[in-house]
Amino acid sequence: MKTKLPWILTIVLAIALALVVSSKPAAPKPAPPPQKKVLYWVDPMHPAYKSDKPGTAPDCGMDLVPVYAEDAANAKLTTERRQLIGVQTGVAETRAIGRSLRTTGRVAVDETRLRKVTTKFDGYIEKLYVDFTGKEVRRGQPLFTIYSPDLLATQQEYLIALRAAKQSPLLLEAARRRLQLWDIGAADIRELERTGATRKSLAISSPVSGVVLTKTAVQGARVMAGEPLFEIADLSRVWILADVYESELAWIHTGAEATVTLPYLPGRTYRGKVTFIAPTVDPMTRTAKVRVEVDNGDGALKPEMFGDVTIAEPARSAVVVPESAVLATGTRSIVFVMKGDGGFEAREVETGTKTDQFIEIRRGVVAGEKVATQANFLIDSESRLKAAVR
After folding, report:
1. pLDDT attached to residue 127
2. The whole model's pTM is what?
3. pLDDT at 16
């Protein structure tokens, strides 16, 4: 009997403890967290894209993430925090800007100052006065004399018409006109009238002053009407044909100022203007010819010389920001604009001309706004990180 008493007491105590525990009231459930207010949804890869509803980004297809009101308030950078991460700011301002393009060019003959010498009748060269290529000639200087049976017969017709001028003035005028159309000069016609005798050969003169580029005339040779005998170029003004890549053609305009320098003419700079832009692009080099006209009074510039060409875009007024303020993402350009509460707003901008220190902003930022110029990649990284871990 004594051995069973401890077991009975143990069972009674266990039953009493179970009754106490079951009668204790249950602990209250924790209250659900308060709902955050969503301001908008953004593309985690491009925070500049905003939407007023969830969805996917149109460019990369990623899910848009929400931006909450309290997170936006915590994202503001204080002065101390900006100093800590090295953020510096600049101001968008209006400046007169331009762009300089450097390329190579080749000296070429001004085609508007190029002349070919031919005859309008068959004949034979009797005397050749300009007898080698490269010789300088003056306008009106005799190049050669030519004998032509047709020309001799026309002289005779003119003398007959001259004697009968009183009876047939129209015949005289027709004979004179025929000589003029054959490029017989007024001096030769007056000499024919003075002497009253035909001349076996007449001189053909240079129509321009310049340099003989090609010569096919040979003394004693027979020539045909229209056959090129000389090619003469006036080199007092020449063309510089510059090669410009197709990606840079948009910056070139006719009338733009240009300078030309040649390494073998140190200390000399030739100035001119762009007068023509070729309408086609070379399929092999992907360049187009841009023509610059320059004066060459002393003849130092010779055809086929090579030189360095600098073409300047005319200066104009534009809104610019420091070059370091623009963050290029590959598909767009972003500028972080400082807001009044100390935060930064990412804006997509359209850029234009780039100089050594500034970039033109055509759309997205106005003059007077402050922009981040240093550590803007940290601002961008922080905004992407916050979007990714939400």
Report:
1. 95
2. 0.62
3. 58
According to DSSP, residue 379 is labeled H
Domains belonging to the chain, first-starting first, are 68-97+316-389 (2.40.420.20), 101-110+235-312 (2.40.30.170), 119-227 (2.40.50.100)
Nearest-angstrom CA–CA distance, 163 and 56:
101
Element (H, E) at 179: helix 169-181
CA distances from 154 to 121, 186, 226, 344 (A): 11, 15, 19, 92
**Cα Rg of the chain, angstroms:** 45
- pLDDT tens string 300-332: 999 999 999 999 877 788 898 998 888 887 778
Q: Which of 73-77, 267-271, 321-325, 346-350 has the highest mean pLDDT?
A: 267-271
DSSP 246-262: GGGGGG--TT-EEEEE-
